[in-house]
Amino acid sequence: MSTPSAGRLRTVVCGTNFGRFYIDAVRAHPGFDLAGILTTGSRYSQEMAARLGVPCYTSVDELPADVDAACVVVPSAVMGGGGSELGRALLERGVHVLQEHPVHPDELAASLRSARANKRQYRVNTHYPHVEPVRRFIEAAGELRRRQQVLFVDAASPVHVLAPMVDILARALGGVRPWRLGDPASVADEVRAAAGGVVPVHSLHGVIAGIPLTLRVQNQLHPGDRDNHALFWHRITIGTQGGVLTLADTHGPVLWNPRLHSPRDAGHRLIFEAGPGAEALRLPTSSVLGDPDEIQPSFEEVFSRLWPSAVAAALTSFAEAIAAESDPLRTAQHDLAVFGIWRDLMARLGPPELIRPPTPTPLAVEDLRVVGAGTQGPITTRPRGTTAENGTPEPDGAPGSGYSESAEFFDLGARDHTSRTGPAVVAALGVIDRHAGPLFDIGAGTGLVTRQIARALPGCQLIATEPAAGMRAVLTSRIADDPELASRVTVLPHAAHELVLPERISGAVACGVLGHLDAAARRALLRSIAARLAPGAPLVVELMGFHTPISMPRTRLRHAMLGGLRYEWWMAGEPSGADRMRLDTTWRVFDGEELIRESHDHYHWYPVDLPRIAEESGLILESVPSPHDKAVPHLGLLRGAEQPCVTT
């Protein structure tokens, strides 16, 4: 166990995701001692605490009385977590709190009032203003403001780090008032159509610190991986009469571009050579602020050096506030203003678009050099939506991406179908070895089949994955309604191509999901499942009846009555490449004969048959036992060559 050092703040870190940076910073900081980790008690956190020689607590009540401070690195309520509530519980225990951004202004005000009432310090860490290149930019901006008037600001940020962007601007410009924001500019229909319907960046204009502002925001989020799909990070340009100061990226470099101004001679001709009155022509067109020999950091160095250093700077400021015993409400006016603007921005932008793009391929600078400039070959371009290797289409999104609009109607269309296929899936699973690991239901939808499987296999641990939030909400409610199922069915938001499977599983079900993946992604998933199946364990697959891309005329698939309304489910399809189809679904809602609602969705489907699935997985395709008189079409049972060893 670690031993406390005199004069240091005994500190617990809450959270072990981004909290890992705080843990490392607390351990390295001369003013702090790591007194423990406060988490939900996962195995990962317990093992980390044991490795560091500190306790792993699971509630505030477990903390010893000698804890001085806490770093709350848990999402706040505005991000769907309990970070702010946890922070206030710690303040009421007499613990100083440093909380990771973002925080809603109402949460911030409540925490500040609690800090004042309990005579403790509370600070929000927006992190990025402490990152070394950003600090350099803020300092240079301050010097620039002392010399010349700022004429404009141009900024860009992904939405998930928009609050730190506002903080960076406030520090660089010496405050935020007066400020005013306009609404995002609308995108013309023809522009949106030309861009394939995808417009990731939204622009708005406003004023901050009395300076005209143009702000561009990538208002998109991957719901299960918000940190990994930003097209860019913080970018800021501050313009004056004498030149332009630019933060090219959160992680640098910081650039200075002096104003291009060539005086004229007596004949009113431009002077092109430096000399008396034209000394500015000797200035370089662009300069990097900082050590000219410093190499731009790699992303690995961002994680190993820049971010830990930024957290250490935040800890130093936190310790100084604790030592000064200042009034937290009086010293937080800057934060209140920053998060007030952030709230206004988020309201104007509206909810982020949920995206599930394929894994990106970062390019190196060498990829951009052309023949004659020191490379081995020309730059090649490829059509939008294709892979670099072979020009074949990439997945249009994660499985479930085409169910965002129609999730509320799904059960109306699927209930009859799953009443037939569900028993067949259960029969195909047979008796599994529940001690071999969990059973995975991949792309579980609203749980119509999941519930049948769980009830047929008492004592079996199930993991049901579903990326579409609307579908997952119904799935979660369906499982939660049955206390026995709720004790052993875990619901995860992961898409099929994102799954990280345990070393051993007792079986897997993939109904109506494999066609969402292209051949490479599908093969990777199937091979991963096959490698982890217990000996003889089943993989049950349900496909659509498409073996090749075809044209499918608009067809009514289902109709249902709900109260006084009639619901109709229509589908149409067209080939959209050599190996995929675009499927368009429409739900129409009628009150009598009057159409009162219409909901549209689309997704891409890669037609595949069961023999191909067997080939890609390396498993053996077996006949499916059916509880009905007729076999269920497009349902397959696959197993490894080894025979099962089952227990009941």
From TrEMBL:
InterPro entries in the cross-refs: Gfo/Idh/MocA-like_OxRdtase_N, Gfo/Idh/MocA_Oxidoreductases, Irp3-like_C, Methyltransf_12, NAD(P)-bd_dom_sf, SAM-dependent_MTases_sf, Thiazolinyl_imide_reductase
Transmembrane segments: none
Molecular function terms from GO: nucleotide binding
UniProt-annotated stretches for the region Disordered: 374-405
Origin superkingdom: Bacteria
Biased composition (Polar residues): 377-390
Thiazolinyl imine reductase-like C-terminal domain residues: 152-256
Alphabetical list of Pfam families matching this protein: GFO_IDH_MocA (PF01408), Irp3-like_C (PF21390), Methyltransf_12 (PF08242)
Domain (Methyltransferase type) ranges: 441-538
Domain Gfo/Idh/MocA-like oxidoreductase N-terminal: residue ranges: 10-125
NCBIfam families listed in its UniProt record: thiaz-red (TIGR01761)
Protein name (Swiss-Prot/TrEMBL): Thiazolinyl imide reductase
